[in-house]
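User: We ran a pulldown and think these components assemble together. Before we commit to crystallization trials, I'd like a predicted model of the whole complex to look at. Sequences follow.
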Amino acid sequence: MVARLTPDQKEILILMDAAKGLEVPSETLEAEVKAFFDSAPPLQNSDGITQQLDQFIQRNSSPSANGKARRIVCVTSGGTTAPLEQRCVRYVDNFSSGHRGATSTEYFLKAGYAVIFLYRKGSFQPFCRSLPDDPLLECFKPIDESNIQVCEAYSEAVKRAVVDHHTAVTGGLLLKLHFNTIFEYLQMLQIIAVSMRCIGPRAMFYLAAAASDYYVPWKEMVEHKIQSGSHLLDVKLVNVPKMLSVLRKDWAPLAFCISFKLETDANILLKKADAALEKYKMDAVVANELSSRKEQVVVVTSAEKVLVMRDKSRSDNDVENPLIKLLSDKHGTYIERPSR
Amino acid sequence: MVARLTPDQKEILILMDAAKGLEVPSETLEAEVKAFFDSAPPLQNSDGITQQLDQFIQRNSSPSANGKARRIVCVTSGGTTAPLEQRCVRYVDNFSSGHRGATSTEYFLKAGYAVIFLYRKGSFQPFCRSLPDDPLLECFKPIDESNIQVCEAYSEAVKRAVVDHHTAVTGGLLLKLHFNTIFEYLQMLQIIAVSMRCIGPRAMFYLAAAASDYYVPWKEMVEHKIQSGSHLLDVKLVNVPKMLSVLRKDWAPLAFCISFKLETDANILLKKADAALEKYKMDAVVANELSSRKEQVVVVTSAEKVLVMRDKSRSDNDVENPLIKLLSDKHGTYIERPSR
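Assistant: Here's a predicted model for the assembly, 680 residues in total across the polymer chains.
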C-alpha cells in the first residue's frame, strides 16, 4: 500500500482504518500481543515494581476482623500517550483528566478495598479533586519573609488531602504506580495482573484509564525529531492489540473485570458497551458519555443495564459513590458464587 | 489527492509533507494566517485577558528609581496540543515540560524585568522547579488527625516557592496566563503582542514554548470521537502558519524577539537556527539539543554564535542564569541603538 502526497502539499494525512467488528482470531491476537510487547522499550525498574506489588498483596491478604481477607482492586486512571519519535518530542495523546479513577479510588478505600492506583503522571490524585491545579501556589500564602500558611478557603480541603492520602498510603491500603506511554501502561498492567493472580476472585480490575488505540512500534520509530520541513515522511501507526481479551483470558482469569466505554455520541454508547461486554468477556462495562459523565453512568452486565446517577442531596455526592457501592455488591456476589 | 488503505489493513498512516525551505510568499502567508484564525474556536474571556494585560503593562511603564521604565518580557512555555476532534478526546501533543520557560522567568525577574508568563496548563511553574511532581502530597505530612506540616527535607524549597511566587505576583511583576491548544496559544500571543506594542523596544518576546507544526482546522474537525473500529477514516492536518514572521512584522515590529530551536540531532541544529534567524528576522535564536539542553545552549545572532554553559560552581547554577544575563545585555544595547 502506497499513499503519496504531491510535493507542494503541506499536509499530514492520517488514515485510520481498522476493519474491525470482525473478530480477530486468537492466533492473530496472540501474534499481535507478542509484536506489541516485543516492540516495547523495556520497562524501567520492573523488579522493584513486582516487589512492591508482592508486599502490598501479601499485607492485604491476611484475614481481617470479619474473618475474610481484604479485596484488592487495581484502578487504572488517565490517558496514555503513543510516542511518534523514540526521543519523544511529539506524541498522540488521549484526553483523560483521571478524575474518574481518582474519585473511584477514594470510594473503593471507603468500601474497604485495598487499591493499586495505576495512573498517568500528572493526572488527578485521590483526595485532591477539590483543590486547584497548583495547590501549593494557590492554597498557601506567606505570613512574612519566611513563614507560610494555608489560605482560609482551602484550609479544610488541604488538611483532608494530606491526612487522608497519607493515612491510606502509610496504612498499606493504597499503592500508587505511574505511567506515561501505552507501552508502560500495558507492561505494568500485565505485571499487576500476574501478581494479583494468587488472590483469585478477590481481585478486581477497574479499567478507567483511556488507553490509546494506536501505536508506532518502537523499532519502526524514527530516532530523531520528525522534521517539519524538507521531505515527505510517513509514520505508520498500528492498532494496539485488544488487551482486555488477554487480561481476561491469560493474565487474570479469575478476577472481577470492569472496563469503561466513553463516547461523545450518546446514540452509539450502549450498543458499543454491549459489544465490549460480549467481546472481552467483562463482568461489567461502565458506559459514559463525555458531557454527562460526572452526573450519570450506565453499568452494563449480561443480566441488566443499571442507570447510576449522583445523589445531589448528599455531601459525598459524586456519581462514583453509588457506582462503587453497586460494583462492590456485584463483586461480593461474584466471590460467593457457588460454581467458583 | 486520495490515499486509501485496503480494507483489511489495520493502520493509520500519517503522511507529513511540507516542501518547505521554499520561502512562502507573503500573500500566501497572510492567507494562511487568516485561515488559521478564522478556523480557530473563539478564545474564552479575551476581554478579561486584554484588561489584565493593559493594567500590567501600564503599572510597569512608569519610570522607576533609575529614571527608566521597567522592561517587560513575554515568556512562552510548555508544548501546545492540536486537537483531532472538536469534543477533544485525542490530540497530537508536543513534548515540553516547561522547565526552560519557568526557570528563565525566575532569572528575568531577578534581572529586573516584569514577566508575562504564557504557559501550558500543567507545565512547570516559576519557583517550583526543585519540588516533586505532587508537592502537596509529597512535601507535607500530618502531625495528627487534623494538622499538617512541611517535611523537613522540603521545608526551605516549599517556603521559597510560596514566598517568591506570591511576592512576584502580588508585586505586579509576574502575570500568568495559560493555554492548552495551539489555537489558544496563538490567539493569546497575538493579544499580548498587540497590547505590548505601546512600549516599543522595551518589550521582549522569549518564545520558549514548543508550538505545534500541524493542526486540524476546527471546522474540518469531526465533532465526535474518532471511532477506532468501523470505517476508513482520514484526518487532514495542515501546517500551522509561521507566526514568527507575523509577530515580527505585524504584531510587535519594535520588540526584541528571541525564538528557540530544539533538535535531537546536534548535526543539523546550528544550520536550522541560522535559517530561523534569517527567515523570521529574529534578534536571536537560542539553539538547544534535547539531551544537553540543561547544560548548554548556543545563542545565535546575525553577528555571532555564543556558547552559553551553566556554571557548576555557583548555587544558582542553571544555564538560564548566564543566558538571561546575555540576552538582557543584548536587549539593553538594542533599546539604546541610536537608529531607533
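The first helix of chain A runs from residue 26 to 39. That may be worth checking against your pulldown data before setting up trials.

User: Thanks, that helps.
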